Amino acid sequence: MRITLFLLLLFSLPSQALTVITGNSFERYNLESGLEYRLQASPEPPEINADWEVARDTLTFGFNPDNLWIRFSVRNTSSETQNLVLDFPYPLLDEVDVYIRDESGKEVVHRLGDTRPADAQHIQHPHLVANFRLPAMTQHQVQIRVKTEATLNVPITLWTQSAFISSSVRATVFDMIMYGILVGIALYHLLLFAQLREPSYFWYSIFLITLVSIFAYFQGYINAYVFESLRRHSNHFLPWSYAVVAISCILYIQRALDLPRSRPGYSRLLNMVAATGLILAIVAMYIPYSSSIKFLTVYAAIATLIVIGAQAIRAFDQYEPAYYGFTASAFLMVGMGITIMEKTGLVTSTPITRSAGDVGFTVMAVFYALLLSQRMRWEQHKRHKAELAVRLSNAELLQTQQKLNKKLDVLVRERTVELEKTNEQLHKASITDPLTGLYNRRHFDQEFQRLHHAAMQDGTSLSLVLLDIDHFKTINDRYGHPAGDACLIDIANRIQSVAKNFDAVCARYGGEEFIILMADEDLATARAAAQTLLSLIREVPVAASGHSIRVTASIGVIARQPSSADETDTLLKAADELLYQAKAQGRDQICSPEKTDYSL
Description:
Number of strands: 20
CATH architecture of the largest domain: Sandwich
Mean pLDDT: 83
Low-confidence stretches: 1-15, 595-600
Distance between the termini: 73 Å
Number of helices: 17
C-alpha cells in the first residue's frame, strides 16, 4: 500500500516542480531555490493532494523533530548516459531515504544516515551520498525523506561523478592539511610537556586533539571510517568531546593566565563550568540526543563567554599573555556565533557558515599557542627579576634559612616521635576489640589468610577453637549489660591465659563468640587446650556487679592441613557446625571430629 501511494505521488508531481537539467557541460547544481519540500510528523509519503512549499534558499529548520520530504526531477538532455551523485554535505542527519524512479517505473531506494550501517551507503565517503545512472534523453523523479534529532539542515548538491570525485579530493586534502597542522602543533606541545613537565603544554595538546576530533565528527570522517560498533554510539561522541574540550581548555587557561593565584573566584567559576560539562556528558548518555544537543549548544555558548570573560579580566590586569587569549576569543566568538545561528536556522546554511566555527577554533588554537609562548617569556622575565633579587639578599636569606632549618629539624624530630606513637595507637585500635582487648574479627580474618597460606606452603596443620558463651542473653537480662560486659572481659582474659602457651591468634569473633587460631598444632593439642579453657570457665565464677555468676561455654574444635587457597571458609564452617553440635547436645561441652582429617 505504501509503495502504491508513493508511485501515485510521483506520477502526480506538478509541472512547476524543480527540474534539474544535466546537459553536456553539467558538473554540479546546488539544490536550493525552487526545491519543493513538506514538513510533517508522519514518516509516510505525503498524500497526493498535500500542499508543498517552495524553498527560497538552503533547507534549514534548526531543531525540528518532523519528517522533511523533498521532491524534484532530473533530466538528461545530453546524448550520453551520465553517472550522477546526490551529495548531502551535512553528514549528521540520522535518516535520509532517497527514492529515485525512472520513466519505466523502476525504483531505486538509498537508505542513508549516520544512525544506519556504513555499508548501507554504496560509496564510502564522509558525506551522505546516493549515486545513480541517468540515461541520455531521460528524466528521473527524486523524492527524499529526512529525519534527524540534530539540527535539520539539508544542503543538497547534484554532481556528475567525475566532478564529485575531484571536489572530494580537494576538500579532503584541505581538511587533512588543517588536521595535520593542528595535530602537529599538539604533538609538538606534548614533546614540550615531556621535557619541561609544564601541565599547560599537556592540556593544550589534549584541547587541540579533541578539537580535531570534533572537526572530523562534524565533517563526517569519524562516522564514515570508524568501526561499526563505534558508529552506533556516535551520538555519545559529541557530548564527551565537548566536555573534554571544555575541561582541557579551562585547565589550560587556568595555568596560562595564572588564575588560581590572581583571580581565585573566577578560577572556581571555571572549575564549576568544567564540572558542568562532565555532568552534561554523563546525562547525555541517558536522555534523547535531540535534548542533549540543545543543552550542549547552550553550554558551549555559556562556557565560551565565561572563558572569554577570564581573558578579558586578565587583560584589564595588564597581564600581557591575556592579550593573545582575548584576540583568540574574538575569532572564536565570531565563528561560534555564525555556527550557532546556522544550526538554529537564523542564517542560511552555506559552506562558509558551516565552516565558520572550524575556522574560528583553528585561529583560536594558533593564538592560544602564542599565548602559551608569551606566558613562558613572561614567566622567564619574572624569574630573571626574582633571581636578581635573590642574589642581592642571598647572604641574609642563607643565614635565616640555616636558623630555620635547625628549628625545623628539632620540630620534625618531635613531631615524628609523636606521629609514630599516634600511628601505633591508631593501628592497635584498628585491630583490637575495644571491650575485651582481643583482636577484632577483621584482623583475625587477615591473620587467618596469612597463616593458612603459610601452613599450605609448609605442609603443617591449622587448628580452630570456636567458643560461644552459653545463655549469654539470660545473663544480660538477669544481671544487666554491665555484668554481661564484665563476663566478656573475664572470659577474654581466661582465653589469653590458656592461649599464651601456643602460637595462637585470639579474637572476639561475634557478640559472645570467641575464636582461637593455633598454627602448627594438631587436633589433640587443640582439644586439650579447649578442655583446659572449658574447665577454667566452668569452675571459676565471674564476679560482676556484686554477683558471682556461673558461666559455661560450648566449644567447637577442628584441625586441618590446608591444601588449597580457598579453604578458609570451609574450615570456619566446620568449626561453626561443631560449635552448634555442642550446643545441641546440651552445651557446656566440646565437640570435635573423632580423628584429624588432613584432606579437605
